[in-house]
Structures are given as structure tokens and as C-alpha cells.
Amino acid sequence: MEPKPTSPRFFAAHLQRRWAEGCHEGPRLLTEIRALGYRGCYSSLAKFLAGWRDHEPELQPKSRPPASVSLRQQAGVHPTVSGQISPLVAAALLSKPRPLLTAWQSAKLGALKKACPDFARMRTLVMSFLGILQAGKVRTLARWMKQANASGIYGMKRFVRKLKHDLAAVKNALRESWSNGPVEGHINRLKTLKRQMYGRAGFELLQARLLPMSRGSPLHRKLRKNLNLYRGLEFV
Description:
With 236 residues, the chain is mostly helical. The protein contains 13 helices and no strands.
């Protein structure tokens, strides 16, 4: 979510200051931010500055129709926000609380809400669903599902259909304090150990690495014998 040195937004403060000072030349601004560590290309900077040029009518050619300029202005898009917002960024902004947003993220969120009313309704539904998961109220979940269906947003209606496929498990997740997180953690640990041995680990070796065993067990004696054999081969 945060801009990187490969993006002009990482140097937005410097670019805004130089733009306010009257420096509107892309190549010159590119040279300045490259000295500050910019690793992107000129085309990315040009796209970033294009949003600012749209808010400078005196810089536009007289032959250019004003309709292409007024689209972003009518939507109320912030001048520091680029013309395109990726779906991944928009999806991440759906579930992030307002106090945790940075200034750049807040500008993105405001632009999305003004340009797309469905995004504002979807964010409201997503934040309400997160509150339901934390509070654990089944009745509230039923009301939320009705609101999501009535919103007319295809993504929310599809999500509600998926919830209904296993609604009993969803309700139990709200009522109970248990979680399958520890199980998923053990599965991930098992896969990690197996990959460390490049698929050459048999069941007995995996069992020895994952499960505790007594020193007198048959598996422990077998592994001990093999270990002594390998140690003897090293000196041959």
C-alpha cells in the first residue's frame, strides 16, 4: 500500500513543492528525484504529473476540448491521485480502518468514494462485516446478509451466496472462540520440513522430526542405528 522508490508518489512532497514553485518541466523534475533515489521511468512520472496538469487550465492548449479535463474535476479526484487505481489497492482500502490510513491512502480512498458510489457502499458493508466477526452476533449477520443482497453489488451478492453454502460453519465461527489457525500452522510447518528435504523424506523421518518419541521406542533405535552407520561411512 505504501509507495516505493520506483513510484513518483514516493517523492510526492518534493514534487508538490517544486510544482508550487513553478517548475512544471518533466525532464527537470525527473533529474531532481533521480538524485533523491528515484528508480522508475519517465513515463511513470509523466502519468503522475498529468493529474496536476489537468488542474492547470492555463497550461492546456486552446484546441483541446474542455470535456477531457472536466471528467476528473467533476469526480472530485485529488490532484495527487493518478488516473488509474489498481484493483489490488482498491480491495486493500476496502477493509482498512480510517485511523490506520496514511495521507496517500486517504487521498486514494476519497477519490474512489467520489468517483464510484458503489465503492463507498461496499466499504461500508465490508467494515460492518469485520465488526460482526469481532462482536460475534449471529442475528447481526442475518441482517447484514440482507443488506448486502439489497445493495445490488454483484461482488457482495456473490459473497453472500458463498456464505450460505456453509452457513452453519460461519455461525459457529461467530459463537465459538475456537479457530483452525493452529491446525493450519502445523500443516505449514509440515510442508516446510518436507520441502527442506527436497521431497526425499519418508514418513518415518517426517514423523521423527515432527512428533516427540521416547528414547526406547523402535523408531528411535532404528534412527540411532542408521545414524551410527552413516557416521562410520564418513571415515571409510
